Amino acid sequence: MRxxxxxxxxxxxxxxxxxxxxxxxxxxxxxxxVKAKPGAAKSATKxxxxxxxxxxxxxxxxxxxxxxxxxxxxxxxQVVVSIKISADGKVSELKIKEASGDQAFDDATIESLxxxxxxxxxxxxxxxxxxxxxxxxxxxxxxxTKADNEAYVNAFSRKVNSRWRNPKVERDYQVxxxxxxxxxxxxxxxxxxxxxxxxxxxxxxxxxAKLAEPYPPMPESLGDKITINYTFQAGPGKDVINKMQFNGxxxxxxxxxxxxxGAQLRPLDVDTAINRKLQEREAQAQDRMLSxxxxxxxxxxxxGKESIEAAKAxxxxxxCAVELHDYKEAEAAYSAALSIVEKDAAQAAELQSLLADYAxxxxxxxxxxxxxPLLSRACEIGKSGNAMPKQRKIMxxxxxxLYKLNRTADADAIYKQLRAAP
Length: 422
Hints:
Blueprint: E1 2-7, E2 19-25, E3 34-37, E4 40-43, H1 52-67, E5 78-85, E6 91-98, H2 103-113, E7 130-137, H3 143-163, E8 173-182, E9 187-194, H4 199-211, E10 225-234, E11 243-246, E12 249-250, E13 255-258, E14 265-268, H5 273-303, H6 308-323, H7 327-341, H8 348-364, H9 368-382, H10 391-404, H11 408-420
Parallel strand pairs: 1-13
Antiparallel strand pairs: 1-10, 2-3, 2-7, 3-4, 5-6, 5-7, 8-9, 8-10, 11-12, 11-14
Helix pairs in contact: 3-4, 5-6, 6-7, 6-8, 7-8, 8-9, 9-10, 10-11
């Protein structure tokens, strides 16, 4: 089974910031046109060694770029600004040559460039003035957006991958499905944009898109909804697993291409028995997650959202989410279950188990200080006089945590109690 995804987004990822200029001399010197990139100024023809204009551009460009400050933006990709420099080194004119489409971004760019200040006088060969056209990209000013979008790509990819099931067909097919999700992760639509010619394969693609709901919540940078085109490849070679790398981060399965934003993908040679086993385990966990969510809905409908039955279902859901490394969902489920169970004195054993599992999630994610009070409460419950089957294990886990927190004396005291216990 192979799964190929094609992301067709406008301004999907903030591109890595860069800038370049195309300068030209005014009036009589116009023949000596200059084109260059940062740190490597070159003439449009071929500059002579020691070209004074070329050297001048190298000198002033870092100061021009350093003056640029733009707000974070959701829409702007780049803006081209013409900067006219007089013979005495004063910036005589700033104007937008190619707008970004985001007026606030363009205005902020011009305002920031007004702070360039006095530049060195132009060389004699540019006595009639020099105009430099600079292109400023938005990416450098929006690195947090880039990180959010990359995380969203990975999460979206995992959801769709986990729900695709290769149908039993005798030859290779591929179907392209446009998946549209809204800001909250709700599936807006799924439709075949390029049929495989085989109804079973087309239905399998649509089914994967529907079962993957809910999708991850969208970051603010991507607006209110997003459409992603996935190309599912079906065929006899269902055990083939293609793993890819997106900007240095391995993806769970398949490969994809992004039409904008500069993503770089390359295949990873990781088709091993171990990886296939991990793939199967993740798919099983996803199936179990769907089953638990159905169980939770039934419990809430029958007993109420604040019932112990619903709390226990949330406990199961949280443990499954941890297995899938979805710690945000796990934390929400643990918190909701805990708020119900701790109100019922008859649920001491469930409360102790819940606290211990909740704490272990924090330990797994290196949030040790948040894990400590939960494990401490779990240990105290076991001292109530009622036999708690998990008490010894929880005390051992608490002692290990205390060692990690450099509370050696407290940890030693717990181990002393364990050794003295029958």
